[in-house]
Amino acid sequence: MTAAAVLLVKFYQTLSYAKSPIPNVCINTSGNHKLFGTVFVLILANVFSAMLGMLFIMYRKYEAYRSSLVKTFYRDGIGYFVLLSALALTNVIINFAPGVRLIFISTKVRTWLTKHY
């Protein structure tokens, strides 16, 4: 997670801002989104490794237990990690997909800014 934090700081250093029509607010106009996507790749790897560790412990230590409580904990835990992985994967796809940015919103804001400033 340290590498993700370092890349996140580097991403924030690449951001540039413009004045917003709303007072005391600025708008992100550009930045290196590949760094931001790499942060989510690292988060996805971290979540995936935690899930594999949990599954390993489950099968090694608690396979003999047939308790419904243990089954519920692991079922819910696996569901939680699958949802976290899906969210991280969605963020990776959005950040690395070509042309998938909020261009329409960004264009509208830039158009408004150039007309009024």
Give your account of this protein's structure:
- The chain crosses the membrane at residues 34-59, 80-104.
- The chain has 117 residues and is mainly α.
- It has one domain.
- Helices cover 73% and strands 8% of the residues.
- It is built from four helices and two strands.
- The protein has helices at 2-14, 33-61, 68-96, 103-116; strands at residues 16-19, 26-30.
- A two-stranded antiparallel sheet has the order 1-2.
- Helix 1 runs antiparallel to helix 2 (33-61).
- The two termini are 41 Å apart.
Strand % is 5-15%
Radius of gyration: 21 Å
> How many DSSP H or I helices?
4
Overall strand count:
2
Helix content bin:
over 70%
- Shape from CA axes? elongated
How can the largest sheet be summarized? 2 strands, antiparallel
Structural class by helix and strand composition: mainly alpha
Distance between the termini: 41 Å
Residue runs with pLDDT of under 50 for 5 or more positions: 102-113
Average pLDDT score: 78
SSE layout and pairing:
Elements: H1 2-14, E1 16-19, E2 26-30, H2 33-61, H3 68-96, H4 103-116
Antiparallel strand pairs: 1-2
Helix pairs in contact: 1-2, 2-3
Short description:
The chain crosses the membrane at residues 34-59, 80-104. With 117 residues, the protein is mainly α.
Based on the model shown, name its key terms.
about 120 residues; mainly alpha; two-stranded antiparallel ribbon; 4 helices; 2 strands
